[in-house]
Specification:
It contains twelve helices and 17 strands. With 409 residues, the chain is of the alpha+beta class. It has two domains: 3-206 and 324-405, Zn peptidases (Aminopeptidase), CATH 3.40.630.10; 208-321, Alpha-Beta Plaits (2-Layer Sandwich). A hairpin with a 5-residue loop joins β2 and β3. α1 (3-12) packs antiparallel against α3 (89-104). Bound molecules: glyoxylic acid (GLV) and manganese (II) ion (2 copies).
Amino acid sequence: MTRTQQELETLSTFSDAPAPAVTRVVFSEQDLRARAWLKGLAEDAGLSIREDAVGNTFLRWQGTDPAAPAVATGSHIDAIPHAGRYDGTVGVLGGLEAIRSLQAAGFRPRRSIELIHFTSEEPTRFGLGCLGSRLMSGVLPASADETLRDAEGASLRAVRNKAGFLGDLASTRVAPGAYHAFVELHIEQGPLLERRKVPIGIVTAIAAPASERITIEGQGGHAGAVLMPDRHDAFLAAAEIALALETSAKSTGAIDSVATTGVCDIHPRAINSIPSRVILEADIRDTDSARRDRMIEKLEEACRTVAARRGVRIAREEINRDTPATCDPGIIETIAEVCETHHVAFDRMVSRAYHDSLFMAKICPTSMIFVPCKNGFSHRPDEHAASEDISTGVKILAGTLAKLANEAG
Ligand code: GLV
Ligand code: MN
Ligand code: MN
């Protein structure tokens, strides 16, 4: 077993779900234990450690020209409920391994090479993904400290402070020009590389995610006594909206249009009580933001017609509506050259999943390296990436970081 596989296995034990599932929600006890363990590994590798006010962690191998903008890699270690062990973690532990392999080979980077562990790429706790990188890029204002709340109603400020991350949230913003480049290693989370038997994907663009919270207020009542014609069932209205969203995603004619209603909270959630209030959360994505926005318009339309027909009130709240990212042609070319040097086959591809790279692309030239995962499974306990594939990804990442670190400028 490689060192990275061993470390992935250890990291998977910091979990609130029984193996093989992994649940590691940001700033939970398990997340904090995992962070401490990761910092130990970074110390052993001689990296300096800096944490910002939201817990983004910067593990730096200092270059011979410390004033030159650094080259960064990294990803996340938080995991959605009942996830697997490879999403994000491959980019963090694989990034560390890439640095250690360059150190072992006696490489001396001119630019510093920095491994970034981003806080809360997953939206589980605060309802918004890529929290750390959104703040770094300035897309999320510091007022999020009060406006973002977890399910218990605790503010981001309260939760991060309790976890030991103090200071002004505005200080997380990264100064322009701080980074020369960013490259994220990640499992593909889709089936294409495995199907085509291609070990490396080079990401050219990242699809634009949007998410919406939809609150439906109907009328509750006794499940036996209220006659069917008199009902204003909030759940049935919600079900129609979720189906309308599915129809709108399927009818764009593009394979890149996807929509998911992943949250449905029913009040009062009792078998013999008509649902009086439902909160839906829907995730809507496309590589083309105009097409994605048309799906959102269709959702709005469905909300209006269902509200009128069923006599319920429907309020929509936009959680985020991001723009897609275009990856940097120069970095894409560098990764391709490294693959060619190592005789490793690659495909250029888009990422339909979002990543911290979506926001890093706003502050520096960015691309991603994908490795295959079994059956394309992700966000589920049987997510799996083969050791050889991860090692290939690490090798290509190391070669890319080395080239970028010695680039002029
Ligand atoms: C990230 O986890 C995503 O949902 O794309
Ligand atoms: Mn994920
Ligand atoms: Mn991820």
